[in-house]
Design goal:
heterodimer, A: mainly alpha, MetI-like fold, 2 domains, 14 helices, globular, B: alpha/beta, D-Maltodextrin-Binding Protein, domain 2, nine-stranded mixed sheet, 50% helix, SBP (chain B)
Chain lengths: 317, 416
């Protein structure tokens, strides 16, 4: 027993004198890297199968003339990249994706913030409004597309009919046919579905602001606008950056509403990179070119993330 | 011990029997199976087939789309998809799944199973000419796209069927003066855009020129062919087709017509199903080909509208062949042609058959004089998207007829 005790002492002593190195997941004496590996293996396998493998396949596909999984694909070098660069629709879709993203951040993010500010101070009715405004977020984007396509119907739609009924017939528009309006109109539908989540995040952020700051501002004679600018918005900075990242990611994923409401038209005016990828891959069966656009979209997302993170870091300083 | 052995043998026998019986043919289609009339027709066909093939169950997979929107391809790629497919076809669409090797060639069966004798000879020749003699589809129905109009509206206003393009324009002016939309179109649904545009090309340029353009023998931006596109833009500029319609799909445009806010709409015999669903009185529907100034060119447009395909990964290829045999039989074809749910022209002449509605009779009569091309189903698959977008561009007033046809020609050249 004494021998065993002595060994234990030695082991604990060693642990005490040699703290675990940073890269060690489990401190020495409490396990080993083998155990750690097996514990992480399922997660690594899932990540590998569902993320790394598809990325590798996409990269490989971009150098082939693949027309689908049932066909042998030949290596075509950078031909698909050349085609992508020379395709004017790719550039139009990319530009429209940027506009789409900006619309989404402004519309969904802005509406989320506005409504959060409007209902955060409510006591009894806040739960009702919170639930009501969050409800659209539970509706599938495809269904949202169908609903809004009907709202926008130029002849029978709620919007144009409503405007006409209240004497604003001159304001009626071809919401989905006017090239200058179509992207905005579809984005309104998409943002309507998305703002509820951002609103909840902003409400959580507002609740974290110390009420004493408002009391102090009042004592200093600040009006509502000044309190908003100097207390509320700075207090929401962290939530705002989070919401912006989330909104940008969701913006880049824009697909369903465009696909359902306009299918990229009229005459490509609402084509996004995502809808064009779908069209190429699953309608034209040009998986090679579609894979190139997937890579382009990923690079675009990475660039935006880097730029945004740098901006956020600078703001935080 | 003896009892156990016998029980095991009986269980094995039953299991083997169950295996034989467990034959299921999964069929992609038919469209609109949720409609009671269509369900009644198809459930009857299914029951008849199952009686003739004991132990076989036919399972319908209600389609989520067509080849045009990628739904068929996605189903086939899943590897748990259908054993036989009924979908919107035509060379443009079939090429997509054929190139992806998602369907098998059926050429040999045209002789082996005498399918060749069960479709019009001209149709067989046309199919044979598509892929150097190889055939990948079996036609189920043909389309004949023309102008649908309201008989009562025309009678009340004293409007007559126009004989020439000029008369047609005059008619549209008269309709417009009554604050009614002369023509409805829903180009958000690519097919719907193509229906109207194909009619206009046929009317302005004739079957021979459109055929040449589809085969690449005549440029799409040739003045002989540009006329149709220019006319579409002129109709838009005159307000006969509202620019706002670029935001409408087939359902939206149909709604305008069913509610009599539009006087005319280009559609095929399948529109009877939409009309029935909308509660429209089919006795009031009239049908006419798009008027043309070229002698004999006032024809509906169309081609193969629906076809049977057998996927490369079909689990029941033999059963699929039997099913196609059954569908081509006189028994089934006549049953379908006379049923109220019938919405198409069948791929061979069916004698002593009375179409279920008056408008179908009119369509069949007009189509008997010949059908022109609907480019939507004949264009190479890589060009169709440009083609549909150009039509949207014309309807929304974004491009001129000349520019639009240049874009189609550019794509044709790039693809070829």
């Amino acid at each position: 027993m004494a021998g065993v005790q002595a060994l234990d002492d030695t082991a604990s002593g060693a642990a005490a004198t040699a703290p675990p190195r940073k890269w060690e997941l489990i401190p020495a004496g409490h396990g080993n890297t083998g155990t750690a590996f097996w514990l992480m293996a399922p997660a690594i396998a899932v990540y590998g199968i569902f993320t790394l493998f598809p990325i590798a396949v996409t990269f490989w596909l971009s150098f082939t003339d693949s027309a689908g999984f049932n066909t042998p694909a030949s290596f075509v070098g950078v031909e698909n990249y050349r085609k992508a660069v020379q395709d004017p629709i790719v550039w139009q879709a990319l530009w429209q994706t940027i506009i789409w993203l900006i619309y989404h951040v402004v519309l969904a993010g802005g509406l989320g913030l506005g409504l959060a500010l409007a209902i955060a101070r409510l006591k009894r009715s806040q739960v009702f409004f919170r639930t009501a405004f969050f409800l659209p977020h539970l509706v599938s984007l495809a269904v949202v597309g169908v609903i809004w396509a009907n709202i926008y119907d130029p002849f029978f739609g709620l919007l144009n009919t409503g405007l006409t009924e209240i004497g604003l017939g001159n304001w009626t528009q071809g919401w989905l046919s006017d090239p200058a309006l179509v992207l905005f109109s579809v984005n309104v539908a998409s943002s309507w579905q998305g703002f509820g989540l951002y609103m909840l995040l902003f409400i959580a952020g507002l609740q974290d602001i110390d009420p004493a700051l408002y009391d102090a501002a009042e004592v200093d004679g600040a009006n509502s606008w000044q309190k908003l600018i100097h207390v509320t918005l700075p207090g929401l900075r962290e939530v705002m950056t989070f919401v912006m990242s989330l909104a940008m990611i969701n913006g880049l994923k824009g697909f369903a509403t465009v696909f359902v409401m306009t299918n990229g038209g009229p005459f490509y005016q609402s084509e996004l990179i995502t809808t064009y990828i779908y069209r190429l891959a699953f309608q034209a069966q040009d998986h090679g070119l579609a894979a190139v656009l997937c890579i382009l979209l990923s690079l675009f997302a990475i660039t935006i993330t880097i730029v945004f993170n740098r901006w956020r870091a600078r703001m935080a300083r | 011990m003896n009892i156990i052995t016998r029980a095991a043998a009986a269980a094995a026998f039953l299991a083997a029997g169950a295996d034989v019986r467990a034959e299921t043919l999964r069929m992609w289609g038919p469209e609109q199976i949720t409609e009671p009339l269509i369900a009644e027709l198809w459930n009857g066909i299914k029951a008849d087939f199952e009686v003739k093939n004991p132990g076989v169950t036919v399972e319908f997979i209600p389609p989520t789309g067509t080849i045009s929107n990628g739904a068929v391809q996605a189903a086939l790629q899943s590897d748990v998809g259908p054993d036989v497919v009924l979908t919107n076809s035509g060379i443009g669409r079939i090429t997509v799944v054929k190139n992806a090797k998602q369907i098998i060639p059926l050429t040999a069966y045209y002789d082996e199973r005498a399918w060749k004798d069960k479709i019009y000879p001209w149709l067989f020749e046309e199919l044979k000419g598509q892929y150097a003699g190889e055939i990948y589809e079996v036609p189920d129905g043909l389309d004949a796209l023309g102008i649908w109009y309201h008989k009562d509206m025309f009678a009340e206003n004293g409007w007559t069927i126009p004989a020439t393009w000029k008369d047609f324009v005059t008619l549209m002016k008269a309709i417009q003066e009554k604050s009614i939309q002369p023509l409805a179109v829903g180009p958000r649904t690519p097919g719907s855009a193509g229906h109207l545009f194909g009619n206009l090309l046929q009317s302005a340029s004739g079957t021979i020129n459109v055929g040449k353009a589809l085969r690449g023998e005549l440029a799409w931006d040739d003045p002989a062919l540009v006329v149709g596109a220019v006319r579409l833009r002129e109709l838009v500029d005159a307000g006969f087709i509202k620019k706002e319609m670029a935001g409408l799909d087939l359902d939206g445009a149909s709604r305008l017509w069913f509610n009599k806010r539009a006087a005319m709409f280009v559609a095929g015999p399948w529109f009877t199903a939409n009309a029935r669903k909308a509660g429209y009185d089919l006795n009031n529907a009239g049908y006419l080909p798009m008027p043309s100034d070229m002698a004999g060119e006032a024809k509906p447009t169309g081609g193969v509208g629906w076809s049977w395909l057998i996927p490369s990964n079909s689990k029941q290829p033999e059963l699929a062949l039997k099913w196609i045999d059954f569908m081509l039989s006189d028994e089934v074809m006549k049953k379908r042609a006379q049923h109220a749910a019938s919405t198409m022209i069948y791929p061979r002449e069916l004698k002593d058959i009375q179409p279920s509605t008056r408008v179908l009779k009119e369509i069949f009569a007009v189509a008997a004089n010949g059908v022109g091309y609907n480019p939507s189903v004949y264009l190479p698959a890589d060009v169709t998207d440009t083609y549909f977008q150009v039509i949207q561009g014309l309807v929304s007033g974004q491009i001129s007829g000349e520019d639009g046809m240049k874009q189609i020609q550019g794509k044709m050249v790039a693809v070829r």
